[in-house]
């Protein structure tokens, strides 16, 4: 079974989407190609990506979550901010994925053989600001601790495109030991704000996959609302966890004030 589809967004960026609706991005230069994330780990995403490019392919993970990291198993080494090492060891493990996915009746027709194996290669650390030159196209990795401690946002300089991924979006999740507090997250976003003149396009990994530029300022305002006690107080269940949401939303989780950008957080992160 083929779990992937693709869409070319520009001469050097292709979106690959898996059957669950999560996406990752293939960036190609004249000499190399880079897969930024790997989706949920069904089938063989390496084989699929290699049908889209004839350049040597390597992997960078934006963070260690179950819906982005597992497909890296098809490579001998992968770049990941080491702040997410503990997280990725849990989330990319085959037994953890089998347990999480097979609990959903929707996934019970997926053959166990299609769950990709455990990663046995090497995780190479990424430094904040590290550049990856693909030949005429370069990716700068920007650390943005928040959603996870090791969250990185790739900036594809020549395309003036930044991949916010799960790091900033319409409902950023801050919860558990792997996420930062809201005040730490706000500092990360203010650092990204300093780069605003270097990008025109924001890409994400879920939902609509893209956002207008005002998203960043709106999510910083969500941080301020939480820290200053002006958040909505509304509760919302996602992935079985009860979150507070910064700005009030309707049943489709669209903000009532019509703006885009929101934060879902557990009470322990509201500081
Ligand atoms: Zn995530």
UniProtKB/TrEMBL annotation:
Organism of this sequence: Holdemania massiliensis
SUPFAM superfamilies, per the entry: Metallo-hydrolase/oxidoreductase (SSF56281)
Keywords: Hydrolase
Gene Ontology MF terms: hydrolase activity
Name of the molecule in the record: MBL fold metallo-hydrolase
Highest classification ranks of the organism: Bacteria, Bacillati, Bacillota, Erysipelotrichia, Erysipelotrichales
InterPro entries registered for this protein in UniProt: Metallo-B-lactamas (IPR001279), NDM-1-like (IPR050855), RibonucZ/Hydroxyglut_hydro (IPR036866)
Source taxon at top rank: Bacteria
Span of domain Metallo-beta-lactamase: 21-206
């Amino acid at each position: 079974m083929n779990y992937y589809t693709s869409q070319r967004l520009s001469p050097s960026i292709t979106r690959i989407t898996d059957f669950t609706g999560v996406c990752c991005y293939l960036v190609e230069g004249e000499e190399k190609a880079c897969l930024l994330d790997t989706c949920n780990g069904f089938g063989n995403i390496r084989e699929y990506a290699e049908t889209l490019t004839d350049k040597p392919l390597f992997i960078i993970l934006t963070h260690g979550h179950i819906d982005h990291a597992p497909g890296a198993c098809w490579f001998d080494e992968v770049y990941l901010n080491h702040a997410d090492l503990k997280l990725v060891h849990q989330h990319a493990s085959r037994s953890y994925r089998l347990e999480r996915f097979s609990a959903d009746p929707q996934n019970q027709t997926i053959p166990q053989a299609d769950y990709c194996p455990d990663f046995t290669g090497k995780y190479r650390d990424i430094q904040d600001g590290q550049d990856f030159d693909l030949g005429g196209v370069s990716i700068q990795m920007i650390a943005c601790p928040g959603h996870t401690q090791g969250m990185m946002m790739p900036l594809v300089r020549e395309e003036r495109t930044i991949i916010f991924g799960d790091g900033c979006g319409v409902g950023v999740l801050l919860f558990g030991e792997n996420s930062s507090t809201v005040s730490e997250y706000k500092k990360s976003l203010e650092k990204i704000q300093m780069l605003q003149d270097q990008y025109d396009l924001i890409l994400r990994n879920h939902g609509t996959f893209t956002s207008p530029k005002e998203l960043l300022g709106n999510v910083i305002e969500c941080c301020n609302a939480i820290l200053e006690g002006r958040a909505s107080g509304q509760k919302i269940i996602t992935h079985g966890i009860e979150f507070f949401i910064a700005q009030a939303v309707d049943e489709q989780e669209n903000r009532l004030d019509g703006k885009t950008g929101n934060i879902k957080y557990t009470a322990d992160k509201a500081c």
